[in-house]
Write a structure and sequence with these properties.
With about 100 residues, this protein is mainly α. About 75% of the residues lie in helices and about 0% in strands. The protein is built from 4 helices and no strands. The protein has helices at about 1-10, 10-25, 30-65, 70-80. Helix 3 (about 30-65) crosses helix 4 (about 70-80).
C-alpha cells in the first residue's frame, strides 16, 4: 500500500497518467471519435460496393440497349412512355392494399 501511495506522489507518473487520460478522452482524436470514424468508414465501404454494382448494371443495360433494337424500344416504352404514332398508351397504377 505504501508503494502505491509513493507511486502517486511521483511527478512523472502523475504527468503520464494525465497525458494518457487527455489522449483517451479529451483529445480531438479520442476513442469515441475513432469509433465514429471507423463506423463511418464501414458505411462508406458498403455504399461504394452498392454503387459499383449499380454502375455495372447500368453499363450492362447500356451495352444491351445500344446493340439490341428491340430492347431499346421496350426500354423507351416502359421508362419514358414513348409510343408510335398510331398507338395509345394506358398507364396502369396498382394500388397497394391498405394495412390494418
Amino acid at each position: 500500500m505504501k508503494r502505491i501511495v509513493e507511486l502517486f506522489r511521483h511527478k512523472y507518473f502523475l504527468v503520464s497518467i494525465c497525458f494518457l487520460v487527455w489522449m483517451l478522452f479529451f483529445d480531438r482524436n479520442d476513442l469515441l471519435s475513432q469509433y465514429e470514424y471507423r463506423s463511418q468508414l464501414n458505411k462508406f465501404k458498403e455504399e461504394k460496393a452498392f454503387y459499383i454494382t449499380q454502375i455495372e448494371q447500368v453499363e450492362k443495360d447500356l451495352d444491351e440497349l445500344t446493340t439490341n433494337r428491340e430492347r431499346l424500344e421496350k426500354f423507351a416504352r416502359e421508362k419514358y412512355l414513348m409510343k408510335k404514332d398510331d398507338e395509345d398508351v394506358f398507364v396502369i397504377i396498382r394500388e397497394k392494399p391498405a394495412e390494418d
